[in-house]
User: Which sequence fits this backbone?
């Protein structure tokens, strides 16, 4: 539930602070006073589009903050928790718009993407406006409304995703069928190339190992000579390293007195003598065991030649051959009986179609059941709105040949019959402006009654309505407010007289600047505003008496 709205430097509003409670709140004022500021500001707090023109002239930025009590909205609490933005029972949406048109969004003080405001705002508020009259002429709106009324939004989303998966497989299969000859040629080439690479059976790192082995085998004489000389220098020569270290140790051991400072040096020389001796032994073993195998050298060079020849053939580096082999093998597996084969694609297409049909069938059933109830409830509201002869029908028209579509197996369209005996026709071809306003209001009221959104906003949905029907509209909106929170902008005194809370919007000029002012009215102020709405600027005793009677009746009716 919306509890507070603060608007700074937005449009002609320098500073507005409003408190909201449960029930129905009416927002009234003369044309051009700035009633739209509140709804536009709420729209921005919900992530609506902003531009530099929204900032009050002379100010650097506009700042809008909407505070909600989300303690009774589990969906919003879950969303906040999942995004690590939860902060108790209050939720604060903030939007800051700079005069250069840039904007920043915040949720509970944390910067966030604009999309987050839209997602969360959709769980907190639902705005119904007179502009929806035009959207009611589109079938897309009809389908959306029936799915919402049926509580089938998730099922509709699952159906769209199932259609998307089915359509992707269908497109892939069509492409494969269209390019069947090319695919067969590619398949034959892949088989030949993979068989060649299979025979080569090159392993990762094998080329590097072969090149190292080739270098050793081709330089066997030099390696043996150098290793033999190194062994002599270590231990076997008259001036070997081991003999020289032994002599150095003898000199230190023959010192006339023990010198502690040389103890570490003597230890190092002793260890070096041992290591040089071991190195000499290792070198002798290496020379004795080393085999210079010309046959092995020929095998290695032949293997390397085959590797380089295969790499040149496929125009890749030799070290890339194993990965290239894997790629070709994977492509071959897909084309030759794998997921990309015609048989597998046809089987997968059938599986995806069954999945779509199952979901779409459930969606069709939900829509059919909801359509019957929606028609009955809208008919009841139309009777209250002085349109008893109008017949409202939600038509579900099956797709041609049951062809799958993103929205399911049928088109949804609202039809009306304005007079008895006349066939039902689309809204756009039957309803006049005034009729469309009342039909739109009936639809929105019925849909809002099943809405899980706690705050419903109606923006001049009563345009074109008057007389006794206007009083019925007020009762409808008030009844919605009894179960939640309703905020409505209205020009009808019959509607304003029945609200729980009344906000009056006015504007004034000061020092050549225009300001908008919004104030909460007490009972006397409400009577005066209802009188203004009845009789204009010049109020008479009769007008005030009429307003007092209307206000008293509007409030007493609901007690």
Assistant:
């Amino acid at each position: 539930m919306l509890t507070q709205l603060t608007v700074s430097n937005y449009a002609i509003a320098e500073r507005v602070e409003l408190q909201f409670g449960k029930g129905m709140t009416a927002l009234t004022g003369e044309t051009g006073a700035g009633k739209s500021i509140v709804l536009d500001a709420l729209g921005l707090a919900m992530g609506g589009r902003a531009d530099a023109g929204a900032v009050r002239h002379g100010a650097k930025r506009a700042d809008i903050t909407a505070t909600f009590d989300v303690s009774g909205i589990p969906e919003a609490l879950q969303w906040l928790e999942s995004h690590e933005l939860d902060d108790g029972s209050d939720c604060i949406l903030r939007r800051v718009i700079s005069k250069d048109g840039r904007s920043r969004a915040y949720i509970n003080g944390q910067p966030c993407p604009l999309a987050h405001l839209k997602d969360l705002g959709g769980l907190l508020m639902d705005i119904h406006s007179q502009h929806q009259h035009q959207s009611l002429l589109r079938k897309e709106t009809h389908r959306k409304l029936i799915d919402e009324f049926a509580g089938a939004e998730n099922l509709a989303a699952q159906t769209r995703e199932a259609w998307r998966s089915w359509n992707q497989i269908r497109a892939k299969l069509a492409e494969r069928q269209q390019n069947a000859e090319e695919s067969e040629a590619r398949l034959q080439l892949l088989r030949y190339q993979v068989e060649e690479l299979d025979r080569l059976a090159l392993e990762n790192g094998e080329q590097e190992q072969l090149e190292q082995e080739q270098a050793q085998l081709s330089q066997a004489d030099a390696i043996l000579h150098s290793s033999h000389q190194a062994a002599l220098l270590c231990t076997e020569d008259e001036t070997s390293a081991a003999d020289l270290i032994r002599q150095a140790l003898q000199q230190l051991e023959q010192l006339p007195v023990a010198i502690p400072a040389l103890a570490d040096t003597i230890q190092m020389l002793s260890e070096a003598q041992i290591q040089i001796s071991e190195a000499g032994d290792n070198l002798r073993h290496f020379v004795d065991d080393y085999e210079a195998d010309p046959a092995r050298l020929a095998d290695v060079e032949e293997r390397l030649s085959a590797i380089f020849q295969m790499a040149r053939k496929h125009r890749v580096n030799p070290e890339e051959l194993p990965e290239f082999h894997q790629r070709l093998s994977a492509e071959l597996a897909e084309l030759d009986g794998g997921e990309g084969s015609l048989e597998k694609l046809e089987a997968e297409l059938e599986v995806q179609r069954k999945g779509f049909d199952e979901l779409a069938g459930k969606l069709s059933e939900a829509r059919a059941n909801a359509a019957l109830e929606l028609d009955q409830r809208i008919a009841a509201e139309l009777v209250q709105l002085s349109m008893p002869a109008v017949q409202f029908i939600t038509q579900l028209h099956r797709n041609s040949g049951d062809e799958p579509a993103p929205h399911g197996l049928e088109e949804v369209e609202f039809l009306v019959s304005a007079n008895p005996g006349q066939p039902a026709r689309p809204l756009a071809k039957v309803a006049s402006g005034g009729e469309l306003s009342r039909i739109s209001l009936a639809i929105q009221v019925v849909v809002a009654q099943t809405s899980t959104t706690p705050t419903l906003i109606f923006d001049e949905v009563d345009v074109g309505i008057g007389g006794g029907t206007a009083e019925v509209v007020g009762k409808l909106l008030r009844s919605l407010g009894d179960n939640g929170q309703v905020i409505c902008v209205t020009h009808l005194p019959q509607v304003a007289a029945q609200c729980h809370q009344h906000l009056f919007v006015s504007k004034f000029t000061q020092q050549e600047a225009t300001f908008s002012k919004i104030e909460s009215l007490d009972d006397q102020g409400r009577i005066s505003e209802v009188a203004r709405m009845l009789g204009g600027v010049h109020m008479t005793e009769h007008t005030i008496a009429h307003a007092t009677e209307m206000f008293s009746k509007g409030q007493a009716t609901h007690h």
